[in-house]
Amino acid sequence: MEPFNYRDGVLYAEEVPVPDIVREHGTPAYIYSRAALTTRYRAYDDALSDFPHLVCYAVKANSNIGVLSALARLGAGFDIVSVGELERVLRAGGEPSRVVFSGVGKQAHEMRRALSVGVRCFNVESEAELVLLNDVAGELGTQAPVSIRVNPDVDAGTHPYISTGLRENKFGIAIDDARRVYREAAAMPHLRLDGVDCHIGSQLTSLAPFMDTLDRVLLLVDQLEEDGISLCHIDMGGGLGVVYDQETPPDAGDYMAALRERLGDRALELILEPGRSIAANAGILVTRVDFLKSTEARDFAIIDAAMNDMLRPALYDAWQAIDPVALRDDVEEKDWDLVGPVCETGDFLGKQRRLRLKAGDLLAVRSAGAYGFVMSSNYNSRNRPPEVLVDGDRVHLVRRRETLEDQMGPEWVLPE
Ligand SMILES: Cc1ncc(COP(=O)(O)O)c(C=O)c1O
Ligand SMILES: N[C@@H](CCCC[NH3+])C(=O)O
């Protein structure tokens, strides 16, 4: 389903014209579609309906509490990387027993909180973390459920900044060391070895690296079985790509079918941690053209959204489609550089985009539901934009626009 569609030349979010939302909430603003989140979550869940599984949405992709609560109501699990994400999941009504805790640098206080609410599993990334978790669980008189994140040394074929499963990446324990580390962990009294996990990167557009990874992990599972360590789940992480431009990623159903086939009748529950493939195309960022400025070299449209609102183009040179909110044919088409007000040359959301523009026009940056608002900042002391969740013909403000007061506490001025 395509949640953002034109009707009579105007972009709609589900049943609501985008200009109506802008009238109420201003620009820039993130707009999410509940129906799109639901469809994309269910693509995973339904494909595994007769297979033991848990779909843990990766909270880092979009941690808005409205978004999390929409997913929690579908029965989603969650993949978290900090106690902050855990608290958001709890606030949104998520079930702690469906939460997996990932990340290379968990702190003791985060482990304590996660153990006390009863998360499903800790995805441990180093031997030092195993030791700390064993100590913390011991202090609390409990056993921590553990999976070890293995680094399979598989090339995900994605942007180097978002590739995580190569030997030179900081993530996980090298798969060749994993057997030894599991044996060490098995001797720690406050750990319970439940599973194995991996995550090789983000925005993958082919299944081959996932399948190579699964083969390597299954080999490890068999070796552990010989060592008397019997695991109950395998967590394949997230990483399935989406269409930003001309990519042709496999769909979640085909991916799940391929995993199931390879898993055969092994008694292993399958856990997934999809983020982008659930949230990216469920959101847009709406921005207004403030000024048009043509130089000898370029035509610039200065828009009111900037790299602080949407960092992906500046950080990864990422391309995201940018479309007019209202189609017009009364001005000539030009190749515009869409740049924000921040004082950085890297502050652009799109370059050389062929559009018909006038000052005051609204533009929609597509595929902005994942790694959009969550990566925003106050750079240049800009207030972060509001987030709105559309559900049919209803519009819910799920985070208000920041104010300068949110950025400046009076008590922060130094005393005389
Ligand atoms: C451990 C882990 N799980 C899940 C994800 C979510 O990945 P994606 O948004 O590509 O599905 C990430 C981010 O790449 C991650 O690091
Ligand atoms: N922030 C990245 C994805 C990072 C994945 C997190 N492990 C992006 O926008 O594409």
From TrEMBL:
One of its GO terms (biological process) is lysine biosynthetic process via diaminopimelate. Its EC number is 4.1.1.20. Pfam families: Orn_Arg_deC_N (PF02784). Keywords: Amino-acid biosynthesis, Decarboxylase, Lyase, Lysine biosynthesis, Pyridoxal phosphate. Substrate binds at R276, R312, Y316, E344, Y371. It is an enzyme of class 4 (lyase). PROSITE patterns: ODR_DC_2_1 (PS00878), ODR_DC_2_2 (PS00879). One of its GO terms (molecular function) is diaminopimelate decarboxylase activity. Pathway: Amino-acid biosynthesis; L-lysine biosynthesis via DAP pathway; L-lysine from DL-2,6-diaminopimelate: step 1/1. It catalyses: meso-2,6-diaminopimelate + H(+) = L-lysine + CO2. It comes from the Bacteria. Residues 36-280 form the Orn/DAP/Arg decarboxylase 2 N-terminal domain. Its cofactor is pyridoxal 5'-phosphate. Belongs to the Orn/Lys/Arg decarboxylase class-II family. LysA subfamily. Homodimer. Specifically catalyzes the decarboxylation of meso-diaminopimelate (meso-DAP) to L-lysine. HAMAP family: LysA. This is Diaminopimelate decarboxylase. It comes from Tamilnaduibacter salinus. The lineage of its organism: Bacteria, Pseudomonadati, Pseudomonadota, Gammaproteobacteria, Pseudomonadales.
